[in-house]
Specification:
Blueprint lengths: L3 E2 L56 H12 L8 E3 H22 L4 H14 L1 H7 L5 H8 L7 H11 L6 E8 L2 E11 L8 H4 L3 H20 L4 H20 L4 H4 L8 E3 H7 L5 H7 L7 E4 L2 H13 L2 H16 L5 H16 L7 H25 L2 H23 L6 H13 L1 E5 L17 H17 L21 E3 L4 E5 L14 H18 L20 H19 L15 H24 L7 E2 L2 E2 H11 L3 E3 L1 H10 L5 H9 L3 H6 L18
Parallel strand pairs: 4-6, 7-9
Antiparallel strand pairs: 1-8, 2-12, 3-4, 5-6, 8-9, 10-11
Bound molecules: zinc ion.
The site of zinc ion has 7 residues, from strand 1, helix 20 and helix 22.
Length: 693
Amino acid sequence: MCIASLAGRSAVLLLLTSTFAVAQAFVADAGTSSSQTPTEPKALTLFDAGLIDKTVDPCVDFYRYACGGWLKKNPIPSDQSIWDRFSELQERNSYLLYTDLKKAADTPHTALQRKYGDYFAACMNTDLVDRLGSRPMLPFFARINAIHDKKQIAAVAAYLTANTPTTIFFRFAVEQDQVDSSKQILAIHQGGLTLPDRDYYLEDNPRMADIREKYRAFIVDVLKLAGESENQAKTEASQVLEIETALAQASLSRVELRNPDKRYHIMTFAALRDLAPGFDWSGWFAGIHAPQQEALNVGQPEFFKAEDRLIAAQSLEALKAYLKFHALNAAAPWLSQPFADATFDFFEKTLRGQIEQPARWKRCTAATDRALGEAVGQDWVRENFPPQAKQNTERMVAAIKKAFAEDIESLPWMSDDTKRLAEAKLDAFRQKIGYPDHWRDYSSLTVTRNSFIMDLNRSAAFQLALRLGKVGKPVDETEWNMTPTTADAYYSPTVNDISFPAGILQPPFYDFRKDPAVNFGAMGLGVGHELTHGFDDQGSKYDGHGNVNPWWTDADRAAFQKRLDCEINEYNSFEPIPGVHLNGRLALGENTADNGGIRIAWQGLVATLSEQGKSIDDKIDGYTEDQRFFIAMGQSQCENATDERVRVDVKTDPHSPGEFRINGVVQNFDEFGKAFGCQKGQPMMPKDACRVW
Ligand SMILES: [Zn+2]
């Protein structure tokens, strides 16, 4: 699945992502925020003049001008490693969702409420979870221990994939065929790692070496918690690290994977068996109950060849240790407290600099949303997303889409032939706003209050069955990939649609009661961003039907690439913490979407105001319409993050940190400088700006 999101941090994909002197991470004291007693977070505001830092010149550092007050008032809560407007809103959405879940757990009125109420209640039952310890894992360990021949590895790996959230050796997917998007096919891609990126295994520097040693200690800890001796756990930790390091060496980088050609190699099953004969592919696909198919997408054939060599080279005991640790690691956050603590200590504290685990009710709310998002979302949208919000968003999307069409028409560097095809693609865009027209049917998912791990496993099996059920069927274009309460949005190039859950159509991003300028600045940026994804370095390779299809003339593609290079260089120069630069190639799609998005949102606002007989220079509460637009945009991206978190995100998250999302784009858009009376040559209005769209 290849989806470009707005914030990229939603853990709730249904099917399954200069200097920093002032905004240095500052973190609240432990214990001040991670309340075990749920309390309602304050209501949020779209455009708040009180958050502006008037001591900062907007022409020198617009991000700190727009966000200065917010940055000071919003230290990172101790149960977070990043705190921004997305997390602030998600926290509020989750609290409101929690109140629904609690009611459903205590007094369910419908069968659906009983189901998600039970799921939530099982998760909240820490007495039972602690009493069970690692016992829920025993049946899985027994299967792994019983392996006495490498030929059996595939069947056990399939069993774990089919019955738990474990991922082993590679990533399995059901996806749209990228050259014929009407087909849904089986796919396998590189994977099988535990650390956030292949670089964590491969980079030779003291910081990464230290993380690897702490990772090794974590593996030892959880294996010991599961009953192994110190010696045995140490041996197995070395085996796991060796296997994962070999998989990392065989993996392409995230930048390489941005190229759709690096994710697509259709092969018959017979050819796959020849490519990697040491793994029982027939047994694996039968084991996950995949439908019989002639062919599949083997995303990275070289990876699977290397994996085959690895399986041949490793001892049976080492491979079993890898399976065991992966099964345990997938369950550990939800096993008894010592497992959850060890998981938190390594993945959140060590890797991301977070001080405390979120309260149980927060974790269980998120887990219930992941498992039953379209069930729990039904009451939530009724309570939190009025029909008028949907209608107003539709009008805003239409205005921004029209502005994009006019923008394409006016491009001096693009030929008429390519323009016609770009406009055809734009015409073919679909949009989804708020929540699904048809809710997912969860009737085949069994939930009980007897063991949360079993609920979690059945949910993983349910989601796998749902995906497998799509193979060979027409694409359901009405399906969503995010839950309704998610504070995020996405573009899918293979469906060519943009989706905005009700969860993001809330202050501080959206407020239909407020003036168009602030709505176009904050949410309009999001709408423009998702539309532009259809034409970024990746999206531009797909046509309006969602097929990878080179629809550009060579000359236009070359001119486009030159423009992209300017943006790559611009963002490469940004340095969120001393010595750490952004990766302009990894973030290229997101940065292109931000830069194009702000321009078409602004044009959409100008057109909307003119229809209402207003001008961009009119003033409301002392700010012109365009100043309000830019301030609302800036205030949608205020962000505090720990240094450790920034380091992980620079490696893994294609989105630039908030500071650069804002200062990066205003530098490239002269209308900003004009709105604030900047001089050409000032930092926010440089003489050499980049422009892709
Ligand atoms: Zn995006």
